[in-house]
Amino acid sequence: MRILLHRADGNSGPWIEDFAAALPEAEVVVWQEGTQQPQCDYAVLWQPPEAMLPALQQVKAIFSTGAGVDGIMKFIGRLPDVPIVRLADVGMAIQMAEYAAHATLRYYRRFDEYETQQRAGVWQQLAQHRREDFTVGVLGMGVLGARVVEAMRHFGFPLRAWNRSRKTVDGVRSFAGRAELDAFLAGTRVLVCMLPLTAETTDLLDHGTLSKLPRGAYVINVARGAQIVEEDLLALVRSGHIAGATLDVFRTEPLPAGHPFWSEPRITVTPHISALTLRTESIVQMADKMRTLERNEPVADVVDRTRGY
Amino acid sequence: MRILLHRADGNSGPWIEDFAAALPEAEVVVWQEGTQQPQCDYAVLWQPPEAMLPALQQVKAIFSTGAGVDGIMKFIGRLPDVPIVRLADVGMAIQMAEYAAHATLRYYRRFDEYETQQRAGVWQQLAQHRREDFTVGVLGMGVLGARVVEAMRHFGFPLRAWNRSRKTVDGVRSFAGRAELDAFLAGTRVLVCMLPLTAETTDLLDHGTLSKLPRGAYVINVARGAQIVEEDLLALVRSGHIAGATLDVFRTEPLPAGHPFWSEPRITVTPHISALTLRTESIVQMADKMRTLERNEPVADVVDRTRGY
Questions:
Q1: Fold of the CATH domain A2-90+277-294
Q2: Which overall architecture, per CATH, does domain B92-269 show?
Q3: Which of A28, A49, A52, A25 is nearest to A40 (CA)?
Q4: Would the CB atoms of B262 and A155 count as touching at under 8 Å?
Q5: Peptide bond before B254: cis, by omega within 30 degrees of 0?
Q6: Confidence label for A154 from pLDDT (cuts 50, 70 and 90)
Q7: Using one digit for the tens of pLDDT, what is the confidence trace for B109-166?
Q8: How far apart are CA B221 and CA B223, in angstroms?
Q9: B115 and chain A: CB distance < 8 Å anywhere?
Q10: Whole-prediction pTM value?
């Protein structure tokens, strides 16, 4: 068995070692542009360069090393009709829960304002927000979103979620489809965006939809930058309608120097770290699925090409 | 029935209104220095001034409006032999859990470092700490500490606690007494101080004990400032042995202008807000206990004068 590996960061060594341990029968071929390479059975990648497409024509399945597959789906018309396999949760959900809980508690308990006071040497107790006013709304509650909801439930915040279709999760008010998006937003104080990036979710959060959030709402984005129209969010933060945002993803990454998000005090920027892939655990999961495919059995987490994730 | 009320902040109006609603048969007398006032049945206070002691000689019980009673116990030799009643948890435990979880996640996920990077316009992913290296140790795990432990458990951190006597809480390694303090500290990465202030806990965290924490440990104090020798903590933070601290309480409050904690970037200062008393709920609880005492029945949460809390 041969595995074609692409790592954008060029650091393939630890991946080769972990595949050798998890799947000793496989040979790992690191993809190189412009080189004739042996035919491979499986591809392992996240954001493949266009030049890699010819090498993907003969594989039996494509494995994404991330939960999101938008970097692969943008080439969907030029990919062979083989399974595209997402990474199921391997420690990513709890990381996202940590990220969202930290940002929510920080805004709810006004810790950012207390830090500003500290820098000015001010000792002043601020009025506490009320828990019942802090409804957390998850946009796109899948496996990862469900774990975020659990963390928010632990702290007693009212909960709601918006999805393509109705979801039944205890204590979470479910909104479904575009027809219910405005109502979902109108009652959301802390918006956590966890949507997959598809044609329908691109630019979903623009001036029109973000304005539906109540005054004083807070935005957390751990999904993809292209779901938010950045200048619209910035304008609403500067006007005071939106109180602030914690953003882990951006339309261009790394966030370009001079981008206004860097210096806006009400916007917190992190460098796409909300949920890092745990390499070893991911490779064990992929190796297991490759063995299943070798037995001609179906595997879980195959992308639905129609809905795009 | 008459209730003698003392509020350090002078804002007695809402307390009088809430007592009128919860216990209409009671008359609330606001204590005033140097004035002849009617004899009262119960005293409601937190940090009484020394001049109030004569007025307390005739009451049937003293109610603390906070969880900690050190402000009362310092006068214990001059108080009548009546029950001193602590406030049981009225929404304080979850607030402390929020406070401790926010500070712990902030250090664990390096969000403070990412904010420093943002101010410098730097996009750089930092190595993640390992969950198994982040043992959270609660000093003084009572009712409030047990709730903090639950929040830490939700995020999967290893757990330990130190108390006067052995505690049995699922998944929490218990250490008891001075003989086991060093061992407790040696394995604690995030120390959460929740001790009552007594003669034994005053100055407990000095250079000797804080040095027992492993290099890179983090200190959170939501108990009382006098438990930490502030210059010792500062020296260990500046030397790098302790990575930082989030402190809600101080030896002198408000924290004096010019105190080095204000400007030390590795120390976060908040103005004693980790758990604010919820007035209305507290008054309902006190009114209920006063009615119980009027029936000559025993009440819960009476201070043990020997141990001091």
A1: Rossmann fold (3.40.50)
A2: 3-Layer(aba) Sandwich (3.40)
A3: A28
A4: no
A5: yes
A6: very high
A7: 999 999 999 999 999 999 999 999 999 999 999 999 999 999 999 999 999 999 999 9
A8: 6
A9: yes
A10: 0.89
